[in-house]
Amino acid sequence: MCGIVGYVGPRFATPILLDGLHRLEYRGYDSAGIAVLNLDGEIEIEKTEGKLKKLLESLEDGGPTGFLGVGHTRWATHGLPNEENAHPHADCQGRIVLVHNGIIENHSSLREELLARGHDFVSQTDTEVLAHLIEEEYDRLIQEGGDLPYLPDAVRLALRKVRGAYAIVAFCREEPELLVGARLFSPLIAGLGQGENYLASDIPAIMRHTRRAMVVDDGEVIVLTPGGVTIRTLDGEEIKREPLSITWDVEAAEKEGYPHFYLKEVHEQPQAIANTLRGRLDGQRVSLSEWADLGLRQVDRVNIVACGSSYYAGLVGKLLMEKWAGLPVEVTVASEFRYRDPLVDDRTLVMLITQSGETADTLGGFRLAQERGALTVALTNVVGSSVTRSVDATFYFQAGPEIGVVATKTYTAELILLCLIALDLARIRGRMSEAEIGSVVTELRGACLPEYKRSWRTRSLLAMWPGGMPTGRASSSSDAT
Predict the structure, then answer these.
(1) 154: closest CA among 96, 197, 226?
(2) Are the beta carbons of 359 and 388 closer than 8 angstroms?
């Protein structure tokens, strides 16, 4: 998990990149770096091992001055966490620079081929392979002639040679108003400004600058200039997409006086519950309009596919659905689901739980379920995320951004939403009476109404979270996230 930010526009890039990295620091702790095309037309790279604080200290003079740049905060996968392996990485000529989140699975064989063709490597990362592949394609396009820009096609052609997962952002000193990004299984978004544009791995990096965003899909290459954005597939087909509006407050992605994001988000659990319930209770009834027309009466089994804390929420969902709706439920870690032969057909309901909507293995599980004709439902927190764009129905738990690495409010929201889903399935299948459903709804309303927030009802609902309901801010000054 790494953080990425990129900028092209009329303002100096370095402050924007450093601010974005600060908001993405939760995504990587072992090194950080930026690259900026300076006013002399040269690429300046500044990077350090350790936390972002070390990079900030090394740039006390203000850092590189220019209007185009990329930044990165790293969580190491290939190569030691040191300055040599920190991003950004450049090609042999120092002409192209890029940052990368993900894993290139065939990097070893590609590296051997590139070394045999005379390329020089300075790191042990899989990422540097991409820089040299793009370099080769760029040189080939120059030899073939034609007009600039070359970088978008060079990136597109290079990426067709790699296997794995990636979100990348790159620029070239020969094309000073061009920022190119691409994505496969790793999240990447574009932020759309007035005469300036941004790329980032997560929304908080751009929230201070714009509320208009565009999600990059798998297998797409996005090209940003100060004045516009173009998206194409790896095959060169142009994609038209409308931007989304970011509704979160900037303050929602910041600590608001808490010593760290984890504690802040623990305290946000009551509001997350209220947001999850909002619009889904009608008197004493559960009303889930998201899947009203899905044809759920044909379903005779459920598969819940998830990773990490979402998987554990799924185990609670299994208990509720089996007890209340009388459906057999299987809960599978997404990486296992996609690589085995699960019993899934057109009478199966596959629930994909992913806070970000971008979890690579969960998306792979969706594709398998879709191929086998299953009904697919996503439970996610991020509007417009990858999982939402092809499933049959989407349930947003609307918990707001979760910055802390440890799931807190989003886990609680998943439990509440799974409870609602189990109740609605019980209603559809005639397994619970209106009175029985109403009794549970009364408990759920207790979590939503202010006068009940400290009541035994709320505490009983939140007992599934190991720490229970906090009663006030802690005095600790640690800042783990």
Answers:
(1) 96
(2) no
